[in-house]
Amino acid sequence: MLQQFPLIQYLNPHMESSRYETLLRLMLPQQYRMVGVFDGPACVGLSGYWLGTKLYSGKYLEIDNFVVDEQYRSQGIGKLLLDWLTAEAAKHQCETMMLDAYVVNHAAHKFYLREGFVIKGFHFLKRLG
User: Fold this and answer.
1) Of the four listed, 16, 17, 57, 123, which is most buried by Cβ atoms within 10 Å?
2) What is this structure's pTM?
3) How far apart (Å, rounded) are the C-alpha atoms in residues 16 and 1?
């Protein structure tokens, strides 16, 4: 997962590799997982995901940090990742899948809507400290 930091930077351009490593060490014991698509040795698309349960959704698979290398976009990599994640959700008897997408990421919104996701609400964030 550490080797995939360059792709993670597409979504988090100001993140330093040391912070990424620290956060992964905190996330992995909480069952954070990652799947990738490779072209030879190069990871060209990836997505993290979590499994959980919430009252409003039942058991779910949450997509996290879904990203495709800019040079590989519009070539089916995102669809391949999403199909794998959907199968993984079914394997774990999930009732729903969910994700957050940055407000300004209109291409992602279009992709997710085309793939059957609906906008359920707003995700609020409050920085502490």
Assistant:
1) 57
2) 0.93
3) 15
